[in-house]
Amino acid sequence: MDIYPTLGIRGVNRERFESADTFKDYLTGVEKNRQLWHDVYERARVSDEIVLQARELPADTYLLALSEDWCGDAVNTLPVIARFADQLGWDFRVLGRDLNLDLMDAHLTNGRSRSIPVVMAYDKGFQEIGWWGPRPEEIQTWLVTEGLAMPSRERYRVIRRWYAKDRGQTTLQELLEVLLSAI
Predict the structure, then answer these.
(1) Where along the chain do its domains lie?
(2) Residue 175 — left, alpha, or beta (φ > 0 → left; ψ -120 to 50 → alpha)?
(3) Distance in angstroms (rounded) separating the CA atoms of residues 65 and 103
(4) With respect to CATH, is domain 9-181 assigned 1.10.600.10?
(5) Largest separation between any pair of C-alpha atoms in the chain
(6) CB neighbours of 34 closer than 8 A, spacing ≥ 6?
(7) Is the pTM for the entire model greater than 0.85?
(8) 114-136 pLDDT per residue, tens
(9) DSSP E strands: which ranges in the chain?
(10) Are the C-beta atoms of 26 and 55 separated by less than 8 Å?
(11) How far apart are CA 91 and CA 88, in angstroms?
């Protein structure tokens, strides 16, 4: 049974969106990987080129992420997306995945996995215009083809090094491609 029958596509309207934490409020409440969340956010930079490309998008674009603070991919991507949204003046909010399974189940990785983060973009009428997640395509491909065969501790070290080298630029480029394809 749809518990949000009056909402826009995939269960979001302005009220539900605004009930989500702003990224800064979310950051205040993280417990797992707390220092890493804060460090990534403090060091996050968005290239002028990406900001310039994003200026082609409507100013009233809204971003909503599904996340949990324990997620290694979220800690490496959402702070960079937050900086991106800050620079564009966009509202970026975060909902917990486990308390919003209706949204999660509408954005499954490969149609079957509740992988996070998922970042959904909405227009001014709160109609979904696209979504990105759970990680950049390059690292997702590596994970599926090689990474899953490794012990989780070693796999996470490889992923963390990739994110540290990339500094969120691939995440932003892929998110931007999703958004630009919608206009």
Answers:
(1) 9-181
(2) alpha
(3) 10
(4) no
(5) 46
(6) 69
(7) yes
(8) 999 999 999 999 999 999 999 99
(9) 21-22, 62-67, 91-96, 118-122, 128-132
(10) no
(11) 9
